[in-house]
Each structure stands twice: as structure tokens, then as C-alpha cells.
Amino acid sequence: MRYKQIFNALGFLLIITGGAMGIPLLWALYFREPAAAAFAISSLVSIAAGALMFHLFQTGEEIRPREGFAIVTLSWMLASLFGSLPYVLTGTLPNFIDAYFETMSGFTTTGASVLTDIEAVPLSVLSWRSLTQWLGGMGIVALFVALLSQTGSSAMQMFKAEVPGPLSEKLRPQAKETAKVLWQAYLVLSLACSLLLWAAGMNFYEAMNHTFTTMSTGGFSTKNASIAYYSPLIQWVIIVFMTLAGVNFGLYYLSLRGRTLKTIWHNHEFRLYLLVILCTTLVVLLNIHGKVFHTFEESLRAAAFQVVSIITTTGFATADYNQWPTFSRALLFVLMFVGGCTGSTAGSVKIFRYLILFKHALLELKHQLHPRYICRLTVDRLPINNGVLVSVLIFFFLYIFLFCAGWLVLLLTGMDMTSAASAVASALGNVGPGLGSVGPVANYAHLLPLAKVILTLLMLVGRLEIFTVMVLFLPAAWRR
Hints:
The protein is mostly helical. It is built from 22 helices and two strands.
């Protein structure tokens, strides 16, 4: 492991983080909030620390894969460390563990919060809270790759280590160009979302904040009641854009380049994603209509909103689904383990992995009936090699192992079984709210410090898809 390359890259990422703090600083000045000083200090400290690291550890050598893994993991930890400064300096979250939890929840787009009264928080702090999710949605390292002159295999390695999914489709031969394309699609959809939210009745500030947290599938809101505060029209707009945010952003680019929507529709993962949303929405609708809601539109909107919010791991809420029938609550809990498409801003396992396992299971069943039957595993007419299949199987094993381990540790802190299980599933899948004491109308403030630390680690491991973090625990990764 060559540390110069690592600290040089981390320095550049800190400069980006500090520069991003300029946006909430402008809001603080606009609203004439005392928080302006805290953001100015936080920004200067981050930029100064980043510039110092970038200057002291300059090197012309290319980053190797092992350094790429370290850069990706440490960048999220360091961005969350410096990103927590505004919470501490403004007094919003004076406890460091709480501040780090909230910041990591933002950057990883988890949306779990320890704030007990969101509407009492300075508007500039809420804008920073939303911005961390938007930056983390497509990936701070992906932004770094897009801005840096570094190209080649090392940049692609870092890009793949952060972009969600077992396969990151190469839209262009260079990681720099791929990252640019995805960020461009992200920006265009974000602009469309903000304009429609503004047209539907939100003011500019709220539209911008909720765009950041919708397109990133983050779920932070500026209101205590989350999206339940807003009109049905706004809720439908957010349902649409949460769904769009859960789609592979590469498909948008390929569709625009080919000037046809067939690219999206012919994608098997996309079709399965829509099928799961439609089927689960219908089932929840039938389960809650007449029991929780009495008009069809209200039942449909509530069912669609919560299903889309959970499967895309956004975590917004328009109702307290803790009060829904047991079957609906159980189904929403299962959806925490599903997730959106690869290459989207959604978290959790991802539809693509289930698609691979489902197709492999069918082939294995056919092989049991006809031992001489030989057929290659393919998705969208592309062959899936054994390496990808093994990677998917190991991912599932590690995901289940981490879930069980985290669940047991949280039980030791005194949490009940339902709350502990949903909190771990929510953190590992970057969902946000869970069930029980961490449900949609509650928060994570009451948890013991140990529980918050465990959940913070799970957020990071889940956002970076396990392998990127776990590989750093191998001694070989740190040898020169």
C-alpha cells in the first residue's frame, strides 16, 4: 500500500467537501442565520486540510486497485468526519457520535436521523443535510473521478468500487467519461424534479432540498411529518422521481444516445424492478384499503408511496406504516432487502443480483431433470461468467452474516427484536426508517451510543457494497 497516493486523493476529496459547504453558507447568509460562521469555519478547515494533504503527498504514480479500495472507503469516512463539523459548531448536534451518525446517514443516503425536531433546525443546516445525500447519491468518488485528470484502470477501479451493483456498465472506455455521463444524467433528472416540485406547490428552498433527497434516494426532509406534510400532487411527483432514481442511470444515457426508450424497456432488470413495484403495491393496496384508508385514491397513493420509498431505499414517509396490518408491515420489511437497479442511487441488494440467482436456479432445476442439458447463464443476451455468479453468492452470504451479527449486537443494547432487525436492515440497505421504535414517525436519537456506532458502520459497509470495505481487513491489502 502506497500511502502518498491515498492521502493525495483524500486531500482532493476534502477540498470538494469543503467547497460544497459554500452552498449552505449562502443559505445561511440569505436567511441571516448565525450558522453562517459555523459553515465558514467548517468550509475553511476542510479546504485547508485537503489542500495541505494534496500538496504534501503529490505523486505522479498511478493508483493501484488496493489503493483504490482504501481511497473509496476512507473518503466516505473522512467526508463524514469533516461534514459533521457544521452540526457540532452550530450546536444542532453537539454530541460527536450523533453528528457523525447524521452525516454518515446523509452521505450514504440512508436517511436515518437522530434529530428530534427537524423544523427547529436552522434552514442552512437542513440544506447541508440534504446536500450530503445528493453528493453521496451518485458518489463523491465518482465526482472526484469526473473532475480529476486521472484516467485508466485505476480510476475505473475506484469508480467500480463505489458505483452500486455487481456490474458497472462501461458507457465509455474511460472511467472519467463514464462518471461524467452518469453525473450529467443525475443533474438533468434533478433539475426536472426540482421544477416539477416547485410547479406543484413547493417553494424554491423546499423544492431544492427534496430534489436532493429524492434523486439520491436519501429520504431526509425539511419537515417533521416528512412528505405527509405536502399535497397529494407533490406526493405523486415524488413517487415518480423515486421510481426514476431507482433505475440504472446508464440506461438513460443509452436511450438518449439511441433516441429510443426500447433500451430501457428491453432491460430485464428494469422490467423486473417495475413488476415488483406494481405487484407489491397492489398487494399492500388490497391489504390496507378499508382498514387504514377509506378512499381508493388515498389507499393507492399510500401503498405506492411506501412501496416505492422502501424498494428504492429512499425512506420518505406519508403514513405511519407501523399502524398498518401485520402483513403489509412484513412485506415492507422484506422490501428492505430488495433495492433498486444496479447503477442507480438506490441501496440494498439490487434487483440484478436476484435476477442472476433466479436464472441460475432455473438452469440448475433444468439440469437436475436433464443432466445432459447445457445452457449458459445470460442476462439481456450477455453471458454471466462464473466469477460474477460466485461474487453474487458471496455477497448474499456476507449480507446475511452482517445482518445477523448486527441484529444480535443491537439486541445486546436492549432493543426489541423487531426494532433491532429493522434498524440493521435499514442501515445495511441504506433505507432510513424501520419498524417499531425506529419507525417512520420515530427516529434513532434514543439508541445507545454503541447501537449508533454499529449502525454507522453498517451504513458505510452497505453503501460501498461490502467488498470494498471488507477487502481492507485482509493483511495483504496493506503490504507494499
